[in-house]
Write a structure and sequence with these properties.
homodimer; 137 residues; mainly alpha; 6 helices; 72% helix; DNA-binding
Chain lengths: 137, 137
DNA sequence: AATATTAGTTTGATACTCAAAATACTTGAA
DNA sequence: TTCAAGTATTTTGAGTATCAAACTAATATT
């Protein structure tokens, strides 16, 4: 019985995060897909198209147009691969880095907000629980 | 310092849930938007276009085409509103109910999976923590 | 050297999204 | 009651996202 309630709460949390994320992204003038691309390149650093497409869960065809648009917005750039002339490395421009950091800060602020009334103890326990959950699926 | 790590874990959880959800939805032959519509109508019951659009966070123009497609798939239907002839109530068909229940079960299974190595105590504490988080933003 | 494989782009088609205009109906005020 | 204003939904026009399949160029294999 309890599991039903828990499931409901998890879904509610997911939906709320989702809505929050969409709001923040929209304010930044990017689409969700574009933001996701910036996030991954920001975290991974210079990365090949193919690899990036895999991490995003899209085809390289989809990624090509997406990277085109982000390049137009001056947020990232294609750098020729040194040893493989078929390939590029995608990396953030300075402006892209800015956007990435900004978004990162938004996340930090949200996390602080969520933890507002948690004691040190509770916060730690919550973190441990999440890590356990992450290992389970 | 700790907050950064926690933020990272929360993002990881969110991304993982997102990927999971996308996979499940894709298998069901629906798009994410279509699934979301089914979910809300499933939870809310008969609902007006305008209200549904608001809950989905899209314009009514967007919803019109989306509902058209779901109607073609026989998952929901437009029922004329009794007292206001401009308006419809959107409701699930039997087939739509099936899809909704199926998805619901997937969620329950995932929750069980996530809780696999949690004691009764831990699970309860985790649930309480999530509810606290939900109140904070 | 010839063939197979790989990285990325292009193409054609469908879906999602919005803002703005259009349609049909309801409501409120003269 | 009638007519103007407001509301619910649909339609239209334009941009983005997405995929599968075809294509190009370069690398790897045999």
């Amino acid at each position: 019985m309890e599991i039903k309630e828990l499931s409901k709460s998890i879904i509610e949390l997911y939906e709320k995060l989702s809505t929050w994320e969409e709001g923040v992204v929209k304010d930044s003038g990017l689409t969700t897909a574009q933001n996701h691309t910036i996030e991954i390149v920001g975290h991974e650093g210079a990365i090949k198209m193919k690899e990036l497409a895999t991490k995003l869960g899209v085809t390289t065809g989809t990624l090509t147009v997406s990277v085109d648009r982000l390049e137009q917005k001056m947020l990232l750039r294609r750098v020729p691969h040194k040893s493989d002339r078929r390939s590029y490395l995608i990396e953030l421009t300075d402006k892209g880095q800015e956007v990435f950091k900004m978004h990162h800060n938004h996340h930090l602020n949200l996390t602080r907000e969520m933890m507002a009334d948690f004691s040190e103890q509770e916060q730690l326990a919550f973190h441990v629980a999440i890590k356990k959950v992450l290992n389970n699926f």
